[in-house]
Each structure stands twice: as C-alpha cells, then as structure tokens.
Amino acid sequence: MKGTPELQQAVKIVDPAPYFRYLEERFGIPPSTFDGYVLVQPGRKKVYIVTADHRPPARPRPRTVGLPFLRIYLKFPKLSTAAAQQFGHAATRNVIDVDAAQAEAFLTRRDFRARPEQLTLCTGRGYVLVRYQGHTLGVGFLIPDEEGGCVESMLPKSWARDPDSFSLTAS
Amino acid sequence: MPSVSASISIPSAFLRYRAIVDDWEAFVAALRRPLPVCAWTNTLRTTPAQVKAALEAEGLKPEPLAWRPDAFRLPPDSQPGNRLAYVLGHYHVQEEVSLLPVPLLDPQPGERVLDLCAAPGGKTAQIAVRMQNRGTVVANDRNPLRLRQLSGTIERLGLLNVTTTLHDGADYPLESGPFDRVLVDVPCSCEGNFRKDQQVADAFAGAPELCGLQTALLHRAVMLCRPGGRIVYATCTFAPEENELVVDAVLRRWGEALRLLPAHLEGFRGAPGLIEWNGRRLHPSLELTLRVWPHLNDTGGFFVAVLERQA
Question: Which of B157, B130, B129, B127 has the alpha carbon at shortest distance from B140?
Fold first, then answer.
C-alpha cells in the first residue's frame, strides 16, 4: 500500500482509506478494485493512482505520476474521466446506462435528460457514471426531478468531441 | 486509390539523396502520394479483432500491418480519432514508422524506462502498454504545452505506470538513473514527414545547432542507461548529419563502452545505415542501423539506431 522507497522519495503518498470509502458508498466500487495501486499527490488539486512497483525519480520533480484519480477540495471529490473509464466497470450504484443520443450529448459536453427507468441504480443528486454499451464514458452530475432527471456532462473540454462532426446516431 | 499528385514538387534539398536511394523514381512517386493513416490497439483495454471490427463498423477499411497485426493501416483521408472507440482509449492513431522504435527498445514489465523527448506521447504509450501497465516509464519533455498533450494520451489510454517530467533532456539529472532502457526520439528536421506536411522540407536539415543538440541528447541518454542496458535513437529525417553522423560521434566518444545492435523488424523493409557520407568514412557498424525510405513500405521517412551500453 505504501509504494516503493523511490515513490515515497519522489511524491507525497496519500492515505487511500477515505477516498476508497467514498467510492464504495457512492458507486459501490469495492476497495479491492484498487489492489496493486498506490494513491499519490504530486500537486495540489488532484490525487493520482499509480502501479505499486513504480519507481519515479525525485529529481527532476515529477509533474504527474500515474493516472489522475480524484479532484479533491470540492464538496465531494470528483472521480476523473480517466479513472471512471479505467475502473467504472466495478461500479454498481449511481450508474446510468444511456442510449446513443444521450451518449452523443455526453461526449459533446451537452446536458441530457434521463428517464425514470434509467435511474433505478441512482441514490440521488450527485455524481453518476455514464455508461454506454457496457463502457463507462465518464462522470455526469445528476439532478433528479419528477420526470427523471437532468444529467450534466462533466467531461473535460480536452476529451469533448466536436458536435458538428461526431455522431453515434447517424445511420 | 489515393490520387498521385504530380504537381507536388520534390524539394531541391532532397536531390542530395539521389546517390543513396536505391530507386529514385519510386522514392519521388511515394513522396507525392498522401500518407496512409495508422492505428494501433491498446491491448490493455481491448483486442486487435475488436478494434478492427469497430473501425469497420465506422465504415473505415482497416488492413493489419504485415509486421504488426495489432496495428492497422487506413486510407489517407480516414479520421479514426473522431470515434467512440478512440474516446474509450481502445486504440491510438500514429504513423506507421512511429511504431518502429518501441519493439526495438523491447521494454519489459517491471523495468525502469526513460523516454527522454516524449511529447506528444505516442511512443511513451507504446512502451507503457508493452510493459503491461506495470513498472516505471518516465516520460520527459522540455515543452510544457506538449507535455500536456502527453498527459492527455496517458489519460485516454489508461496508463498507470508513467511519470511525466519537464526538463531539458540534454541536461537530464543523472541522479534520476540508472534506467534499463532509454528512448531518444530527438527533435529533427522532419524531412520524413513530407507526405504529411510539405512545409517541413526547409533548408535546416543537418543544421549544426540541431545536430549538436541531437548528439548531446544521445550522449546524455547513454549516461542515464545502466551498463548492459539499451538505448534507441530515432529521427524522422533523411539527413545523414542528424542520423548516422550523430551516432558515429557518440560511438567514438564512448569507444568500447557502447556498441550497435541490429535494428531489424521481421516483415518491415529497411535499408542499412550509411557507412560513408560526403567522402567521410563512418564507423562500419553503422550499417546495423535502419534507414526507412518512404517507397519501401509506403510510409514516412525514418531512422533508428539500437545501442547497447557495455560498461
């Protein structure tokens, strides 16, 4: 859980317990999903996840170490898109299976409506994983209402597709 | 069939290669054709068969490469980047010649590997995937904007074994080493990219400052590598000053402590490196390096040298 001596020299190691507990509560992701990895904090805003046998240099100072995992110092930590795609398969709660039109909206960073029957795995307002054809696309923010809910696409700009040329619905 | 544009004129800077190209007409004809697109499978996430099926479902026409069945050639006007499977990190889009250095570097799971001039990160990603997402890949670049592009590649492909650093490669701290393997994919005059970008063939091929930087980068890479470890030097230019002459200078500097290994990949056609240029005799082992002319495999131009540090 601690990582190699080189990793400890190079970067701040983070106690993963509170983060794993949060991911289990919100998404039902078992902490064992992350066996073999270590959480580290090379900068201020983000916790990264890296393979436990990783041996980075202390100098030059690492900019990033592994994959962005969570953005912290928010009301609720936000799972990164990269981590959602990597580990989303293990989620059992607050997952929305979307259709092609909804997936297209999500990937072009537009909000979309979710129908009540799509929210059976959801526990309420907050972050959800958006899944299409069994693949986790990323993280959305669900605001439930009487007719289902509105899902805001939390896809970063750098991941977004251009709505003029990207389509999952064109025949 | 892509149209052959006879209107594209071959830069006069290329005429000096007439004596070292085996088939000048074929070389010129290849340079005038648009470059095929290439995509390789992220085997951490999916299989080559699934990538092929996904590309076909998009109406593209993937052809497995003869020498690498997990990578596919696509027609020049294909846009495989704007697809669902791409967003999901199932494949990466990269020119075929850019797939050459990493199999020759041959990184193993658990090793410490340095990619000294890494951005935008396609070769870093190949290294990380070959290492099964374990061990240590250190990906360095001196340009912060390009380093951000590299982070994007890491994130989309789901790489959990890469550290990025921002530093001048020629002055990379020695205390970061030793590394089992080092890739030095140096900045170069990019003549081999002519089929993608006709602006590249400017007159700075072989410019002394550029060659000086390349030599310094390769020398540093050897210093950072452990004895018995491997160094791969690569460029995408035809210019011997940036290829064989750089390797020659570093071989002379290291003497017995450094030797060339054959740069050969089964199923990919290459020409041997030069052992003489402009009347100057080079180290005879330079014929073990790999020169890629565009007409040999219908690709861009490239150069690779595989070195082993002895002591």
Answer: B127
